[in-house]
Design goal:
The structure is a homodimer. With about 200 residues, chain A is an alpha/beta fold. The first copy, chain A, is built from eight helices and nine strands. Chain A has helices at about 15-25, 55-65, 85-90, 105-110, 125-135, 140-155, 170-185, 190-195, and strands at about 5-10, 30-35, 35-40, 55, 70-75, 80-85, 95-100, 115-120, 165. A five-stranded parallel beta sheet of chain A has the order 2-7-1-8-9, with helices on both faces. Chain A has a four-stranded mixed beta sheet with strand order 4-3-6-5. In chain A, a hairpin with a 2-residue loop joins strand 5 and strand 6. The longest helix of chain A is centred in the last third of the chain and has 15 residues, at about 140-155. The first copy, chain A, is globular, with a radius of gyration of 18 Å. The interface of A and B includes residues 125, 160, 179 and 183 of A.
Chain lengths: ~200, ~200
């Protein structure tokens, strides 16, 4: 059995990433969506190991000390991070792993694991991103402008990603993500065992 | 419209490359199969521009002098080569170009155009390649052994290719080639215009 690979998916708030990723999971079995660890309190309905791995601060700090995170950050007084252990267990089982993380986290992961494949999901245009954020109805106009600015800043790093997928339609974006994952498994380094066994 | 890309497909005799490429053309429109130029005489039924671009020796030498070939070689007294002009015309039209060439030609092309994507098609095993060559019924046992030896030598360079596709079934091989071509169009350098237009 081939070992799985890790794929980072980044993209601005409102780009439709979670819709695309859910559709990708329908199309492509054998995926593991990485569940983050956090020190914040569970909200009603949130389950440990499903929505987050809920850790206390001491454990989180211990895991940091033991280099147990692919990436982590502190955000409004709580820690958030990607534990290595679940990612590695999934890859050993032959599953591909999706890390839904933003640009700063992606830099941390690739500094530790340069073989990680990085995909940036972009909106077809800034006007369309603004329209999607407005339609979502969860943010004030001021907050939407802040998100747009942040998206444009993050976008400056898009050329450092391995792939650049434009979410014009969910179907196109899913097809491209699916193709990228298939293609990445055709790299010679992933098939060296087959080559050497010949 | 996006510019097309050039894909080199190499693989040993008997691996089933032409079956796979014909199926790929069914699945993926907008492909141009590069037609080689040659100085050998047309055989009955061969048409200029379809099976080969038939050139006289003087013209071929002139094209060499003008750097008009992506690669060329002499084989039993005749020249064979890949003219740049048809490849470039197709790419400008937005078509992806397939170059069905062997390992030496691939080295020449990528030294001129490092952006060319190289895909090696391999048999699932040497035993299976031998079986396919035998079943084809066109070669003597001695010739089959020579082809196998040549395949094993060419195979030593497979790790220098960008992708490695195993032709276990035509369907799998075509799916992988299709995915590779889609994924390659998601590279940021191919979408820089979209990025900069934002």
């Amino acid at each position: 059995m081939n070992k799985g690979k890790t794929f980072i998916i980044s993209g601005p708030s409102g780009v439709g990433k979670s819709t695309v990723l859910h559709a990708l999971l329908e199309k492509r079995k054998n995926l593991y969506f990485s569940v983050s660890a956090t020190t914040r309190e569970p909200r009603p309905g949130e389950e440990d190991g499903i929505h987050y791995h809920f850790l206390n601060v001491d454990t989180f700090r211990e895991w940091i000390a033991k280099d147990e995170f692919l990436e982590y950050a502190e955000y409004v007084g709580n820690f958030y991070g990607t534990p290595k252990r679940y990612v590695d267990a999934a890859m050993i089982e032959g599953k591909d792993v999706i890390l839904d993380i933003e640009v700063q986290g992606a830099i941390q992961v690739t500094s530790k694991r340069p073989e990680t494949v990085r995909i940036f999901i972009a909106p077809p245009s800034w006007g369309e991103l603004e329209r999607r954020l407005t339609e979502r109805g969860t943010d004030t106009p001021d907050k939407i402008q802040k998100r747009l600015l942040r998206a444009k800043v993050e976008f400056q790093t898009a050329h450092t990603y391995d792939y650049f997928v434009i979410n014009d339609t969910v179907e196109n974006a899913v097809n491209e993500l699916d193709a990228i994952m298939t293609a990445e498994h055709c790299k010679p380094q992933d098939r060296m065992e087959i080559i050497s066994a010949k």
